Hints:
The protein is α/β, with parallel strands linked by helices. The chain folds into two domains: about 1-255, P-loop containing nucleotide triphosphate hydrolases (Rossmann fold); about 255-285, no CATH class. It is built from 13 helices and twelve strands. It has helices at about 40-50, 70-75, 95, 100-105, 110-120, 125-130, 140-150, 175, 190-205, 225-230, 235-240, 245-250, 270-280, and strands at about 1-10, 15-25, 30-35, 55-60, 65, 80, 155-160, 180-185, 205-210, 215-220, 260-265, 285. Strand 9 and strand 10 (about 215-220) form a beta hairpin. The protein is globular. The N and C termini lie far apart (about 55 Å). About 35% of the residues are buried.
Amino acid sequence: MIRLDKVTKRYANGTVAVHELSLEVDAGEICVLVGPSGCGKTTTMRMINRLIEPSDGHIFVDGDDVMKINPVELRRRIGYVIQQIGLFPHQTIGTNVATVPRLLGWSKAKTRARVDELLDLVGLDPGDYRDRYPSQLSGGQRQRVGVARALGADPLVAVDGRAVRRHRSDQPRAPARRVPTVAGRGEEDGRVRHARHRGGRVKLGDRIAILREGGFLAQYDSPADILAHPADRFVADFVGADRALKLLQVTPLEPGDLEEPLVLPSGVDPAEARRASNRAETISLSY
């Protein structure tokens, strides 16, 4: 659904923000871009919808070269969550979410139904929130509205400039599952802030693209494979020394993989308990 083929962004002063980046995102997949400040995450996302145009290489969305599509039409096919959310303060939440459907000429009834569907999808009751203004919402609620607005016209793909973070109920993951999504934190104040959130992003993405400064792709793989087999010292240092513990968070277990523990009653003879424990890998004591 999204394919980058040796995409490079080079500025007039010679600075290379992205260097021959190649990766693919399948339909229904969440790809997360991570890396230190200046590694090209925001530039990459903006090139997908032509807010920035690549210097070399090709970007395909649903098989179409984005450089051969009218940029306005292209952007209406792509849900984009602005990095600072960017809700229109003078418009209600419902009107904000309806931005793209209105531009596409949807009927009022269809637009209202879509607004209510999306507000419900991101965990905001339409009856309570549709007629409020952004100033009446918390920061987290405004972020959810930004996600709903990006999905307003059921786009082919979504590009998230803030990296939708996981909330307690994993709500952002549900709307993200509806379309292939590229998410990245964007411009940051150095690596310290990245380190604070990178564990959550590993859990959020189906595949993680770790970029190094200069826009070089260090590794593109599933969270489990990156944590278990970092490509080099840079990736290992970036995901952290506790990657073995993080690996447990992203390793699925089937019920059949679990063993029934040996249950020993309280007061059991120590010698008998020792013999039983030598024969079993998992022990549970009942009291």
